[in-house]
Structures are given as C-alpha cells and as structure tokens.
Amino acid sequence: MNHVILVGRLTGDPEVVKMENNSTRLVVNLAVPRTYKNSEGIYETDFIRCVLWNGIADRASEYCKKGDIVCIRGRLQVRSYECESNEKKFITEVVAETIAFVSSYHAKEK
C-alpha cells in the first residue's frame, strides 16, 4: 500500500501551469516539521515536493497562499529523467489526491 498523509506549511504561493493536453498541474513544497529534536535540541523540518493535478490544483491555487497550513493525502512517486549531461536523475514526490485547508497564516495578519 502506498499512502501518504502530510501536514505542513506551504513554502510559496501556488501557481498553476496549463499543460499542452489542457490539464493543469501545480507543484508545491510543503515544510513538515519533525516530531522529535535532533542532537542539538532543535526540531528539524523536511521540505517535501507535492504535485497536484486538475481540479485539486485549481482549487489549491485559488484558496491557498504561502505560509498556510494544509493537509495533503496522496501517494509517493519516484520518477527519473536524463539531465543535459545524459546523467540519470531521480525525483521523489507526493502525488496529491486531496488537499485540506487547516489554517491560514494570512488571516492572522489582518
């Protein structure tokens, strides 16, 4: 079973990209704090790449902003590509199935 649930802050404003086949894609990075302290007593943060498609991408770009806390449920995906030097590179990302708005950073600023 490949099932991932993440809760974290958006590191940037979501921007939808229109694809050639009329689908829409949104890539966001989610800052997810770890639940334990490292050897220096600091909570580290993981920055996780998440990909949203079509309707979910459109809604996220409309309602979510940098700093907002969201919950993303999806699956882990590893894909590869060849860079300019013909070296094979790998990308690990979460392909989102749902996104839930948890808290707005911007609502507190007003």
Kindly list the characteristics that best describe this protein:
110 residues, mainly beta, OB fold (Dihydrolipoamide Acetyltransferase, E2P), 5-stranded mixed barrel, 1 helix, 58% strand, globular
Topology:
Layout: E1 4-10, E2 17-18, E3 24-37, E4 43-53, H1 54-63, E5 69-82, E6 88-103
Parallel strand pairs: 4-6
Antiparallel strand pairs: 1-3, 1-5, 2-3, 3-4, 5-6
Q: How do the strands line up in the largest sheet?
A: 1-3-4-6-5
Terminal CA distance reads 43 Å
**Estimated structural class:** mainly beta
User: How many extended strands?
Assistant: 6
Mean pLDDT: 92
> How many domains is the backbone divided into?
1
Biggest sheet details: 5 strands, mixed, barrel
Known CATH architecture: Beta Barrel
CA radius of gyration is: 16 Å
Approximately how much beta-strand content do the residues carry? over 45%
Let me know the CATH homologous superfamily. Answer: Nucleic acid-binding proteins
- What is the string of SSEs from the N terminus onward? EEEEHEE
CATH topology: OB fold (Dihydrolipoamide Acetyltransferase, E2P)
Low-confidence stretches: none
